[in-house]
Amino acid sequence: MGTNTAPTLHDVARRAGVSTATVSRSLNLPDRVRPQTRARVELAVAELGYTPHFGGRALVSNRTNTVGAVIPTMENAIFARGLQAMQDEFTAGGVTMLVATSYYDAEREAEQIRTLLARGVDGLVLIGQARPDSTYQMLQARNIPFLLVWIYHSDSSYPCVGFDNRGAARAMAEQVLASGHRRVAMISGLTAGNDRAAERVAGVCDALAARDIPLEPPYLVEKPYTLDDGGEAAKTLLALDPRPTAIICGNDVQAAGALRGSREAGLAVPRDVSIVGFDDIDLAVAVEPALTTVRVPHRRMGRAAAKLLLQLIAKVQSPESIRFDTRIIQRGSLSAPPDGY
Amino acid sequence: MGTNTAPTLHDVARRAGVSTATVSRSLNLPDRVRPQTRARVELAVAELGYTPHFGGRALVSNRTNTVGAVIPTMENAIFARGLQAMQDEFTAGGVTMLVATSYYDAEREAEQIRTLLARGVDGLVLIGQARPDSTYQMLQARNIPFLLVWIYHSDSSYPCVGFDNRGAARAMAEQVLASGHRRVAMISGLTAGNDRAAERVAGVCDALAARDIPLEPPYLVEKPYTLDDGGEAAKTLLALDPRPTAIICGNDVQAAGALRGSREAGLAVPRDVSIVGFDDIDLAVAVEPALTTVRVPHRRMGRAAAKLLLQLIAKVQSPESIRFDTRIIQRGSLSAPPDGY
DNA sequence: TTGTACGCGTTATCAG
DNA sequence: CTGATAACGCGTACAA
Questions:
Q1: Which of A14, A154, A172, A322 is most buried, judged by most C-beta within 10 A?
Q2: Whole-model pTM above 0.85?
Q3: Do residues A258 and A226 make contact, with C-beta atoms less than 8 angstroms apart?
Q4: How far is B164 from chain A (nearest CA, A)?
Q5: Long-range contacts of B146-152 (CB under 8 A, 24+ apart)
């Protein structure tokens, strides 16, 4: 049972005894139709279980009420909160968000963007700024509104909604220095094609350079954002001579891994070595000791980004970047260095 | 700059000096067109940067190459891995996956399904089985292929791809009993509208009942799947007299919270109290001690679900459920109960 | 206020 | 192998 063919505007019109134009108006501009007529239409709609055909609508209106977001991966919790908030805001605005993943690969990102464009998204949200010119050219050729999130640059050529990764990392490093550390190492995310990661390294360097402390391999190591990689990297760092007294990590996942790695190396945190993270995801307080980290207002950022993109699409607003502040959350994983350092 | 209007089939046809039909064929059925002609078309496509208009295509073919997935929330890592794997598989098959969230609310889920249907998805993936009849009726009225995932019931009326939550929970509880525990408490997820949570409780009850051990409030408590709720629940349980020697949690997030709660209550895990989780997400090995938990093959499950749905849509396969096995991963958080119990 | 009629971009049928 | 041409479902001038 079940006729298998969805009812069309035409079916509704016939049933309500009006024209298709009237049905369309009843649905889209209800004020322009007599209440009595509208009631008949609505009844017919309900009886038939009519829903407008997406393709037909997209074809004629040239809008899809759809936006796309390309993130590196869903698996890392780093993006989950912000993305969910964005999604909620878009949903509230009646638009659907498509999520695609790039696995931190520029070529793949471009491909996903192409796919989203082919699907007629009305706007796009991208993470960070680092991507080939060709990608930006494609976006501009299409003349499609887009937003860069998770970063903020006052001088960016494109509107962004995010925070100053470099400044936040510098502040974190300064906090570590203020705790008395002088032998500082860093586990960074892979910086190739990831400007957030690169900026965090730069920020840490800024702070250390101000005290004439270098940050170079082998004390600076780049690893993927995983627990295991964080752990391995920490073990490597802690085997160095002289051993670092503090490890600054590119994010909380790496920091949690480093915590485990330190433990496996027989060192206590923060007694023997301090470890700090970045992002303040749930994981930061799940581990023991809890992580000193940089709190990023993921939810507010996601909502603001969605709102702005909706406005850009509606052309009620010109592109204007939004900057969020971060702050350091002091928890157990950072303390003064051990005596004698 | 930027003409602002995307090139159409017509534009390509003119440029290549052929008809629109030939362009369409070159793209969709390349063998049916002379290589030389095809080359001209492909050149024009490249020069113009043409991409087929999604709406036009959807209109005539009545397919969108889009599937929908409704999950409770993106924020909990429980779904991230499986969802990403599903997404990858769908992408490989040339279809786009739309992700919507229900926040564990049936009404909201129905609404999201309606939205997805209105967008013309070719198929649907839903989590679990518990939802109002009206929702199933809606799906059947539309005659749309759909799949239930994260569960498996041999007698389900609908095709499912997942595992036996009840059996897995029973096995976990038996493991706890085998370690010598007799005072067992449970922190469950909210069971209203969440059959996976309900089944896990049932499974634990099965195992305990076999030993004439009851599981009732206040030793059974329902809380949302959050770190904080897990911690609070654990503290409440550990204040009971007699105090439980083992706490079985509805998932790893709650278990990680319970771990923290126990520590805050001044108890050591597993020396004073054992704690076990469910799902084996990354978090399980980030905490100390690492969680004894139930490993669920999220990735394989996600991929299998995507594959099956694609086949259902293509009608090359009749609905047939797929069952995955789980297994218990023994780690540090479970040991024998303290002496005297 | 309502109806008629056209066109959006694509695919598919049918001739040639 | 290729080209007209007719749908597909909807929104919207324009006319009534």
A1: A172
A2: yes
A3: no
A4: 24
A5: B146/B309, B147/B123, B147/B305, B147/B308, B147/B309, B147/B312, B149/B82, B149/B125, B149/B301, B149/B302, B149/B305, B150/B82, B150/B196, B150/B301, B151/B195, B151/B196, B151/B199, B152/B321, B152/B322, B152/B323, B152/B324
> Domains (ranges, CATH) in chain B?
9-52 (1.10.260.40), 66-163+298-325 (3.40.50.2300), 165-296 (3.40.50.2300)
CA of B38 to C1' of C15 (A): 22
Each residue's pLDDT tens digit, A271-330: 999 999 999 999 999 999 999 999 999 999 999 999 999 999 988 878 889 999 999 999
Q: How many residues are present in chain A?
A: 341
Considering only CA atoms, which of B128, B337, B6 is closest in space to residue A64? B6
For B286, which of A2, A6, A256 is closest by C-beta distance?
A: A256
Q: Which chain B residue has the Cα nearest residue A81? A: B75
Minimal Cα–Cα distance from A40 to chain B, Å? Answer: 22
Q: Sorting pLDDT into bands at 50, 70 and 90, what band is B252?
A: very high
Round to a whole number and report the distance in Å from the CA of A145 to the C1' of C12: 35
Please tell me the distance from the alpha carbon of residue B191 to that of residue B175, in angstroms, as a whole number.
23
**Which contiguous run of DSSP H or E holds residue B97?**
strand B96-101
Query: Closest Cα partner for A5 from B173, B328, B142?
Result: B142
What are the C-alpha distances in Å from B167 to residues A184, B182, B201? 49, 20, 10
